[in-house]
Amino acid sequence: MTEETSAPVWVTTAIAEIIAKMPTVAARNAGAMPYTTDDQGRFIDLSTKDPTWWTNGFWGGLMWQLYHVTGTQVYRDNAETLEQQLDANLMQADRLDHDNGFKWLPTAVADYTLTGNKASRNRGLLAAENLAGRFNPLGNFIRAWNDKGDGRMAGRFIIDCMMNLPLLYWASRETHDPRFKFVAEKHAQTAARYLLRADGSVNHMVDLDPETGAYIDAPGGQGLGEGSSWTRGQAWALYGFALSYRHTGDPAFLASSQQVANYVISRIPADGLLPVDFAQPDHWEDTSAGAISACGLLELAQHVEDANAAVYRAAALRLLQALTEQRAHFETSTDFLLEKGTAAYHDATHEFPIIYGDYFYLEALLRVTGQALFIW
Predict the structure, then answer these.
(1) Is there a contact between 246 and 303 (Cβ–Cβ < 8 Å)?
(2) Which is nearest to 60 in space by CA: 40, 18, 20, 30?
(3) pLDDT tens-digit readout, 164-189
(4) What is the pLDDT of residue 48?
(5) 79: how many CB neighbours lie within 10 A of its CB?
(6) For residue 215, with 0-12 CB atoms within 10 Å meaning exposed, 13-18 middle and 19 or more buried, which class applies?
(7) Which residues are catalytic?
(8) Buried b vs exposed e over 335-358: b needs ≥16 C-beta within 10 Å?
(9) Angle, to 10 degrees, between the axis of helix 306-326 and the axis of helix 9-28?
(10) How far is CA 253 from CA 159, 173, 314, in A?
(11) How far is C-alpha 366 from the geometric centre of its chain's CA atoms?
């Protein structure tokens, strides 16, 4: 199935508002690596403060989506600059981790897809080789993070990695080498076994014995705590399993995505705005979880029969409409698109703009109209 190109007026209006706003924002942030904003709503640049941070690819993705739709040169210039800045990260082994997909899919792979740039292809393949090298064949998982040489993280994998697997699927197609796809599929199967719960909620992280693959535990992670339901983790799972189905055709991945989707839909609050954790709906909000979930629901709707597709599309539009009418900012005086994102439940600060919330918000809107550049 394909995404529908008909869209509600509020969707096309929101896209037009973003297209009107972003040339000013792009020019103001040339050469920057945005993550969040200051008190005036202007992006804070991580290019010197933290140039290897896991979110640093999303500004590039935002720029490429806008370039794909408008052809405006400033977006391409910003994306290409960011991609080149990330080269330093490719030379830092201790700062390469399971988030290689988040860094190089929206930058190098998007660049290669649109322009055929061979240097971008090379970057994407280097990142994929490193990601595949994190695979633990004893437990069939991709190790999430590095440690300080003590091996304490050697057995940990997390739900976020489902969104990094498309880098491996891309590398397999690009090189005609099944190794990458094999690693991605095995990890996705392990994620479904240990991270996905029977009710459709998900664990953020799981620790296995790195030498035997035996289950140890499931720490709480970025949600409320062990056994709770961190909404951005739900979104990564919903979208990630749907993408693994797209790339493999394995119906088990489709079923997993639907399981998560049905859980999320049943818990969307009346106002359509997602909390940080479904176990604590009256606490802080996370608009990024709503935007990512909307993308996942729209992806899932392409792969199911019409009745379920209508349900998933309607839920995606409900989430997007709530974000557009209650949390979006289209004025040029500020840089961000969405307010009230939250990185983690137990962080000291909550409800602030986050670059990946903006990226997935735009991707979701463009998916509704059929204009999105597919980078996953």
Answers:
(1) yes
(2) 30
(3) 999 999 999 999 999 999 999 999 99
(4) 94
(5) 28
(6) middle
(7) 99, 160
(8) bbbbbbbbbbbeeeebebbbbbbb
(9) 50
(10) 14, 19, 22
(11) 15
pLDDT at 117 over 60: yes
| CB environment 107-137: b (16+ within 10 A), e (fewer) | bbbbbbbbeeeeebbebbbbbbebbbebbbe
CB 109 within 8 A of CB 120: yes
CA-CA-CA-CA dihedral for 343, 345, 350, 353, to nearest 10? 20
Instruction: State the burial class of residue 77 (Cβ atoms within 10 Å of its Cβ: 0-12, 13-18, 19+).
Output: middle
Q: How far is CA 122 from CA 4, 119, 229, 266, in A?
A: 34, 5, 38, 43
* Over residues 242-258, mean pLDDT: 98
Contact 358, 329 (CB under 8 A): no
CA-CA distance, 259 to 255, in Å (whole number)? Answer: 6
Distances (CA, A) of 275 to 152, 197, 234: 31, 20, 12
